[in-house]
Amino acid sequence: MLRRGLLVAAVLAVAAAAWFGWSWRAAAQDDELTRARERDEVLSTASTALTALNTVDYRTVQFDYDRWLQVSTGQFGKDLATDREEHLKRTAETRTMATASVRQAALVELLPDTARLVAVLDVRIGINNEPPVPNRSRLSVELTRTDQGWKVSAVQAG
Asked: Major place of localization (predicted)?
């Protein structure tokens, strides 16, 4: 009787292991799971990039601007690169300090090489050593997949 009980337990353990193995493999290859991971990656990258693009300190403006160029691509990135010297000069002259945080972001469209999202940022801007003034920005953002990952290719206030 003991032998029969052990045999039944062994068969049930093998069946359970097989079912869990099959379930794990199916979940790992699930297209919806892959798409959800990609969506999360795009939202995370966009949040980091938008925070960087809306943060500047006149004392570290060259570093901040380099960060802007790192998170941007396409015509948007080219425009930032073209305006670099003017922006550095203006930021230093006005002693601009701005910090940003993404309040909300939602993906509107996710294609293999592009993504569109809307975002709301809380931005605090101070000029000429004045206390920072809070501001809320609503943005439409486009990201493009590059060899270095997702980068911001367009931003429009909305």
From this structure: membrane
